[in-house]
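Here is one chain, start to finish.
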Amino acid sequence: MKHTNEIPAILTAIFTINRTGNEDRDITLILDYAFRRLFGANTNLLMLACLERSKEEIMPEVNRILDEQTQYKKYLEEYKK
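Its structure:
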C-alpha cells in the first residue's frame, strides 16, 4: 500500500469531525477499533480534545494535521480541476 504513513492523521481527522455535531456511534467504534488494533493507541485524548467544541472550532486544527502529515491539500487542488 502507498502512503500508509498518512493513515493516523486521516483517521484522526475523521474521528475528530465525527465527534463534533451529530456523532455516528458506528463510526466512533470502528475508528476506536482501528486506533487500538493498528497503532496500539486509544482515543481518550482525542475525545477530550473534542469536548464541547463545534466542527467550525476544531477544523483549523484538523486542517493543520492534514497539511502537516498528508498530501490531502494537494489532492483537493487536483480534484477540483
